[in-house]
Amino acid sequence: MKKIAQIVFICMLSWTAVLYSSKPAGAEHFGILLVVRSGDHEGRATMDTSPPAAGYNPRPVVQCHPGDVISIRWSMKDQFPHGALDNVGVHLFIVPENRIGQKTVPDPKSQTTVFDNYFTMRFTPNSQTHGVLRYHADSPGVFLIRLQSENTAQQFGHEHFAAVDLDVVS
Questions:
Q1: Which of 12, 95, 105, 108 has the fewest CB atoms within 10 Å, measured from its CB?
Q2: DSSP for 34-100?
Q3: pLDDT tens track for 17-53
Q4: Domain for residue 18, yes or no?
Q5: Is 19 within the bounds of a domain?
């Protein structure tokens, strides 16, 4: 009997450690998918949250060469079951970064920004927006491709995003 009690105690400690060491579970407000493809290379990122700015999940990396065509597909779906979300910003941008996996998010208003698209919309439960962008990698470097919500942090305490690093090598 003492042996069983010890096993149960160890199992409870293990589960407690798992619960407290991982990101909090719970329903999120948006489902986001960002798919970046160049030739045979593909990176898929799903919803993460900010803060922290770089989120919790490591970013996938897609490698290509200058002149290659980059295909970017994205979708953002409302998963908030408690009514409409008004004035939600949907922001897709491509900015240079210093290195793969960089923790700080470069300012998309920078003069070095490669692509910047922003619009606002009203999300009702299960509504969705999506898009496709094809772009040519012009020069070598590391770039952040990021789709993010804006204007929801005040209500929910965080924003939602998906991001992929693009490594353009010569």
A1: 12
A2: EEEEETTEEEEEE-EEESSTT-SSPPPEEEE-TT-EEEEEEEEEE---SS-EEEEEEEEEEEEESST
A3: 333 333 444 457 899 999 999 999 999 999 998 888 8
A4: no
A5: no
